Each structure stands twice: as structure tokens, then as C-alpha cells.
Amino acid sequence: MPVPMIPLDFRRHDPNEQVERADRFYEEMQRRRSVRSFSDEPVPRHLIEQAIRTASTAPSGAHRQPWTFVVTEDPQLKRQIREAAEEEERINYEGGRLPQHWRDALEPLGTDWHKEFLEAVPWIVVLFEQRYGLGTTGERVHHFYVKESCGIAAGVFITALHHMGLATLTHTPSPMRFLTDLLGRPRSERPFCMFPIGYPAEDCMVPDLRRKSLDEVMVLAGAT
Ligand SMILES: Cc1cc2nc3c(=O)[nH]c(=O)nc-3n(C[C@H](O)[C@H](O)[C@H](O)COP(=O)(O)O)c2cc1C
User: Which of 109, 114, 168, 170 is the best mutation target for the ligand 1 pocket, counting ligand atoms within 8 Å of the beta carbon and taking the most?
Assistant: First the structure.
């Protein structure tokens, strides 16, 4: 059944303003960093909800929006998540599960299996990908481009958090099956990514990483 068509709500900016907005937004995004050291300062739930609303504006395959954002501020649940994540990460870092080339790639970041921040943060949001949907009578509904859709939604989510002055980490303590159990999610869903969210600790340090230049990431094809 086709949905009705409505006029597009598109805001046109004049060219100077366009450049100014583009430059300002780039500068803002250039300051975004993954944070691994948080304060316990509270964050209003409204901000988390707005970030999820914003993430949910992302495009998705056939508009299935195949994502569930599970949100918790429960100290006991955060402790359980930390303990389970550390268990997996200890095997990754110290039990030899991570192949050497992966450990080499992580070395400059200075990360290890300790994840204190998972208890320190006011909020944890876990993004689950819905491998398929469930219809009103429990029948399976096909979802398309699930990973691509969730990846885009995750990008919009971290952008929204950064824009509202919050910090987060894109965290994947693999394998992440423990999150399905701890958070009581159905078999149709799989953990995609975890986001501890809050304010950075006063003394928060981040690795001095260089981002690729435009020349390194952009290729101009065809005639100009
Ligand atoms: C899909 C994905 C998974 C990631 N998983 C982890 C993780 O499990 N632990 C971690 O400390 N950082 C993780 N990161 C963060 C990256 O290390 C970080 O984005 C990268 O070092 C660049 O730093 P920046 O985000 O400050 O620009 C992940 C990032 C992405 C995109």
C-alpha cells in the first residue's frame, strides 16, 4: 500500500551561509573524540532520549529502521555489563584470542581489558540490530541492509551526542552475546555496538591520533 506523498520540508541556505555552516560543523566534528575516562556527573534522561530520536532519523533499508536502543542507568546492571565485558576483553587481550596484528593495531591506543568507565558513566546505551522484524502475529518481517542501516544510525547517534556536549565511546567488547542475555533481548536481535555516555573525567586524556587528510580519503573521478 503506497503511503501518501507530502511536500518536502527542505531548508535552503544562501551560499555564504552554506559555507559557514559547513566549516562550523566540520570544526565541531573534528573535536569529537572517543572517551574512555568519564566522570559520574549525571546526565538528564531527556538528552539520551533526544539522541536516540535523532539516531532514529537515519535512513534505513526499505525504511525498516532495524534498530533497538537499550538504555540503562541501573548501577547493578552497569556493574554486570562491566564484569561481563571485562571477562571477554581479558580473554581478548591476555588470553590470546586477539590475533597479533589486531593487538599491534590497538597498541598505540593504549587500551586494555579494564573497563572501569562502564560503571562510572551515568548511562549505557546498547544498539541492537534487528536481524528480522516481528509482525503483529509473530511472523518474521524481512529487514534489508541491517548492518549498513545500524552503522548509519550509530553515526547519527554519536554525532547527536557530541553536538549536545556529551562524550561517548563506540565500544565492541566482542563477543557481545552477553549483552543479549543481560538485557533480555529476543533472538531476532544481535548487539551491534555499546555506548557508555557521560561527561569526560576532568583529567581525561586521549591518544594523539592523526586523521587522514582529504587527499587521502577523497578521489575525484571523471571530468570537472
Ligand atoms: C566499530 C567500532 C568499534 C570500536 N570498538 C572499540 C572498543 O571496543 N574499544 C575501544 O576502546 N574503542 C573502540 N572503538 C573506538 C576507536 O578505537 C576510535 O574510534 C579510533 O581509535 C579513533 O579515535 P576517535 O574516535 O577519538 O577519533 C571502536 C570504533 C568503532 C568505529
Answer: 170
